[in-house]
Amino acid sequence: xxxxxxxxxxxxxxxxxxxxxxxxxxxxxxxxxxxxxxxxxxxxxxxxxxxxxxxxxxxxxxxxxxxxxxxxxxxxxxxxxxxxxxxxxxxxxxxxxxxxxxxxxxxxxxxxxxxxxxxxxxxxxxxxxxxxxxxxxxxxxxxxxxxxxxxxxxxxxxxxxxxxxxxxxxxxxxxxxxxxxxxxxxxxxxxxxxxxxxxxxxxxxxxxxxxxxxxxxxxxxxxxxxxxxxxxxxxxxxxxxxxxxxxxxxxxxxxxxxxxxxxxxxxxxxxxxxxxxxxxxxxxxxxxxxxxxxxxxxxxxxxxxxxxxxxxxxxxxxxxxxxxxxxxxxxxxxxxxxxxxxxxxx
Amino acid sequence: xxxxxxxxxxxxxxxxxxxxxxxxxxxxxxxxxxxxxxxxxxxxxxxxxxxxxxxxxxxxxxxxxxxxxxxxxxxxxxxxxxxxxxxxxxxxxxxxxxxxxxxxxxxxxxxxxxxxxxxxxxxxxxxxxxxxxxxxxxxxxxxxxxxx
Lengths: 346, 148
Fold this sequence. Notes:
Chain A is of the alpha/beta class. Chain A is built from 10 helices and 15 strands.
């Protein structure tokens, strides 16, 4: 059974395994530094569909199908499905996954959804409530632009702090402890708002949430940056990453040498014109599912923290002058499971 | 450790966020915006040289620019030009045409009535509303004070 350690962290004593993962990317993502690692790449931004929303749904559908194929499983083998995306009413997930027939939970955590869905999947497996659970998220540049910003053909300049919504999806299957990567502990984030109002500077809005969650995890587990090979945040981009490092420095944690950000891994910031880096549910999902999970499997990464961050505003709330509430969820992923308890209290 | 106050954090954000590159953006806006206006003037010259009276040639040149802007928006070229042009592509009449054509293209997937028809003015709408309102207010002032 799981053990509460400290106030916010849950140690998953059984250490559920991520037994498979799949990542889908668009053309721009495939041209990025980790483009070769995607399972499926589609150069057609519409993915053969009529609308951008259906294109994103198709991506989710393909990601789900691919991860099932890779694990030699059928939809009927999966007991629960946690999914989310950036669109209103989660239409990408709802339309993309309606044919699977798996008991379904829709999640909205903005760009933090991959961590949120993985945490819930791991908790269900850890608690013995399910044998196999799927977590899946996506984002699409074109569907996100028209919902959150401007029509694609509108001529405007993006600010240097803005981030590029990834056209990508990632899916994982979590099952009982069997193989790496193992989910050893999770810290669920609280909503945090430092009064940032700039929609074109989401990294800055999200960095404090990431700082709080990481700090709480370190305090709860009595560990620090030196205990991990990698501290991977989801989608803070360049500005947010710089701020996170500064914020944690003030708290007494130097993560500079261990830190990387999915938004800066997915694209080459220098040549791909993404300004401060990538973002979107699909960004953290695709980086985790294509690049990180195989690296843990192969033992290249032994212990790491995956912290996906989300900006929880809507275009309406921002137009009404509200600031951007943010969240960050953390998972400790490892190539080895938690040691079996020796009896007695820890 | 005390947590960072909102005000202190705003300062940190300001320092960490790179500003827009004005040294590059402003000259580019001048050049590209200037080129669009020069093109407009070339059309005026062309039309008048073909015997079109001047009071017709001016609006005809504007109409030509609007058409070209809409065409280049549809061909996915205007937004790429605007990436460099910035205010230079926004301010001339071509920017207005782009602001109407772009949502018309984008939202036609929601149908010709509630999509294309309704959302066409999502960006340009405010300009029309406040432009006409200012015109009416100006007209009333002129009427009341009999300035003409």
